[in-house]
Amino acid sequence: VSEACVNEREQRRRAIVTAVVLGAMVLAIYLTVVLKLAR
Amino acid sequence: MSAAVPAHEHHDDHAHDHAHPTGFTRWLFTTNHKDIGTLYLWFAFTMFFVGGIMALLIRAELFKPGLQILNPEFFNSLTTVHGLVMVFGAIMPAFVGFANWLIPMQIGAADMAFPRLNNWSFWLAVPAAMLLVATFFVPGGAAASGWTLYPPLIIQQGMSIDMTIFAVHMLGASSILGSINIITTILNLRAPGMTLMKMPLFVWTWLITAYLLIAVMPVLAGCVTMLLTDRHFGTSFFNAAGGGDPTMFMHIFWFFGHPEVYIMILPAFGIVSQILPAFARKPLFGYASMVYATASIAILSFIVWGHHMFTVGMPAAGNLFFMYATILIAVPTGVKIFNWIATMWHGSMTFETPMLFAVGFLCLFTIGGFSGLVLAITPVDITLHNTYYVVAHFHYVLVSGALFAIMGGVYFWLPKWTGNMYNESLGKLHFWLSVIGFNLAFFPQHFLGLAGMPRRIPDYALQFAEWNMWSSIGAFIFGFSQLLFLYVVVNCIRSGRQSEQRPWEGADSLEWTHLPTPAPYHTFETAPTIR
Hints:
The complex is a heterodimer of chains A (39) and B (531).
Chain A: H1 3-37
Chain B: H1 23-29, H2 33-61, H3 72-107, H4 115-134, H5 153-156, H6 159-188, H7 201-232, H8 246-280, H9 287-300, H10 316-328, H11 330-344, H12 353-376, H13 378-384, H14 388-418, H15 424-450, H16 465-495, H17 510-513
């Protein structure tokens, strides 16, 4: 496996991790508003 | 900021196969960031005209006192949907269009991190906007509560509110997905050597804007979800009769709403920060301080929402806190204004159309900023709240601020996007007509507000007649001059003379220094190395 390919895979893994973390933030904020503030 | 390096042999890498699908399927299924950027920009342009027609109907009604052409209910719907369309359908998608076109090229990436998600983000926005506009055609008419959708009025209206809520949900989802894509792209796909502090300021402003969107769009979504459950599922979040609190809606809405203002202006700061150095032929003054000022504005935007509701009866301590916090925003904003002026200072300036719009932005946005400071002072705001002074203030921020930056950006990057030059004379004519029409439309509204004319009314006292007439004349000049903008853009695409590789000699970001003009369909398949 070439170095470029490894780098691309690593880049892709990091991108997915970033997106998942950001998505979790969005969900957490939405649920906080609906469930906590509106209680 | 990245150092200007000459275009090199890398161009040849792009000369190979740039075949792409054609026709309808190209646009429906595209995952190319440039195609999606183009789609966003045309979509925003279309919605700008849709919202503009509503604005002209409003101004036609207000041309003279008395009810002229619209019934009051429809007038209220027009003010509401005009606001929603311009915010969610025109300004925000236009900036996302710029982001799609420019961010990958400016950081040396091949595309956005998630191209399919990118396609989905765009195609979510289109039916949402159509749903929003379609509310005019359902029984009961479109939402008439103002763009803030305040209960209890909003809870009492017909099915158009459900459509509006669904549209806002979809537009919010579209923005969130777009923001995740932008943050991921910037953090992970930068070319080797493109450190964060070498990124063009447009990329920086969008990185910060995307974080703002991630933080506040779910708040809006939660807020309108609660409206929906109040309407249909027996809850009483905002219904006082059921133990709820309409004021809570205002707090939650404006916790979203104020950062939203910065979502609409930070990318404009980024565009102006690209244009001014290019035409002053000097590097941007105080690059690092511009980055920190942008971040400071974004952080402060979370603690000032109360200034929208000084009149609801918050404790004096609350009013004071929000007043001081709001005034504090003038500090980082002032840093930016002075940095832009310092960038132009002793520069070899020329005033092509993008520069005219950037300088117009600088002068007129500053007026909007100053009237914002006036409104930040609690006792003054209590007097001016809900008057035309507020309308004048936010149009100076959003039209001569955000929209002028968008127009300047379009002229600046049209050669890169199309490979053709626009007609400079017509561009300048468009600028001057816009400036004259805009100021004639909105400057008198300061006087109307100071004299006590309330917003969102189709009729008014005779004492306001003259300035309203001038305001309507200005609005029509501004509105119709945008047809000239459309003509200039279409003419540039279809029959403009071929652009030079780098038409603006002072432009030094990667899309100008490392890529041919027009930008090929696929760029940076091999990442450039930044020195």
